[in-house]
Specification:
61 residues, alpha+beta, two-stranded antiparallel ribbon, 2 helices
Length: 61
């Protein structure tokens, strides 16, 4: 389920990805959630790391 989402992001300029014109870690986590949740009903959280100690997470709320 994640492979199609990854293909949209990997090796792309993120601010050129549809619906991701302002690609902050917070917005990327929401963007990923919106695409994965329909097919992964048990998804509880998306976490996007900027560095090992800096990340954004989204749980649908």
């Amino acid at each position: 389920a994640f492979e199609p989402v990854l293909r949209q992001l990997d090796h792309h300029t993120l601010n050129e990805v549809k619906d991701l014109e302002n690609p902050t870690a917070e917005l990327i986590s929401i963007w990923i959630w919106d695409r994965l949740k329909p097919s992964l009903g048990n998804l509880t959280q998306v976490k996007v790391f900027e560095t090992p100690f800096c990340w954004a997470e989204y749980d649908g709320s």
